[in-house]
Amino acid sequence: MASLLDRLKVGFHWRGDGPVSFADVTEWWRDPVVLRDLPPALAALVPGAPTVVIGPASRGTLLGALVAAHLGAGLVELRKNDRVAEHGPEFLTHRLPRSYHEGGALLSFRRALVRPDDRVLCVDDWIETGAQALAAREMVASIGAAWLGTACVVSDLPAGSPVAGTLGLRWLLRADDL
Ligand SMILES: O=P(O)(O)OC[C@H]1O[C@H](OP(=O)(O)OP(=O)(O)O)[C@H](O)[C@@H]1O
């Protein structure tokens, strides 16, 4: 695990030339050891036996697919601004306001992909406000499926935020470690 955490730190970069910093995690996927070791490390964070992993687009979907394959579970893409979702009653949607991440987003998945007897694990690379994962949790709850928790690589939530408890959030690193 120490070696994985070290590699995550080495492959991480803050970007931006002003007062705002942006997280650049693209180098993680370029490291075959991270790609191999990250899925089992994330899967081990949250107890339970997921039948479905839900991953917010795009990096949550990328990582979620790796975790789902490791667990032998299915993957549900939590799509972002998928136009068909606005035109099909079979899609469950949740709109994040324009103030969210400088533009908002329409989150969606096809309702039938999560069943009431599913046990759902949410996977993402980074949790900042928790808004996307909270939306996923609400959407999953509306179907009646069980929410096992959220596994992320980096938590950027303020210490003591109640959102962590609501999400059942577990992480490998805090943003302050980077
Ligand atoms: O906790 P939150 O405030 O909801 O923010 C975290 C989300 O934001 C980032 O995704 P983004 O929408 O930037 O898309 P990306 O995965 O394509 O980078 C990140 O990957 C999480 O999904």
TrEMBL record:
Main location as per UniProt: cytoplasm
Keywords, sorted A to Z: Cytoplasm, Glycosyltransferase, Purine salvage, Transferase
Pfam family name, one: Pribosyltran
Database matches in Gene3D superfamilies: 3.40.50.2020
Compartmental location: Cytoplasm
Any coiled-coil regions, as ranges: none
Keyword 4Fe-4S applies: no
CDD domains: PRTases_typeI (cd06223)
Domain of life according to the entry: Bacteria
Listed pathway(s): Purine metabolism
InterPro entries (alphabetical): Adenine_PRTase, PRTase-like, PRTase_dom
CC per GO annotation: cytoplasm
GO biological process: purine ribonucleoside salvage
Phosphoribosyltransferase domain residues: 48-155
GO molecular function, one term: adenine phosphoribosyltransferase activity
The keyword Plastid belongs to this UniProt entry's keyword annotation: no
Family the entry assigns: Belongs to the purine/pyrimidine phosphoribosyltransferase family.
PANTHER family reported for this sequence: ADENINE PHOSPHORIBOSYLTRANSFERASE (PTHR11776), PHOSPHORIBOSYLTRANSFERASE DOMAIN-CONTAINING PROTEIN (PTHR11776:SF7)
Quaternary context: Homodimer.
Name under which the protein is recorded: Adenine phosphoribosyltransferase
Species this protein is from: Dactylosporangium sucinum
Organism lineage: Bacteria, Bacillati, Actinomycetota, Actinomycetes, Micromonosporales
The gene coding this protein: apt
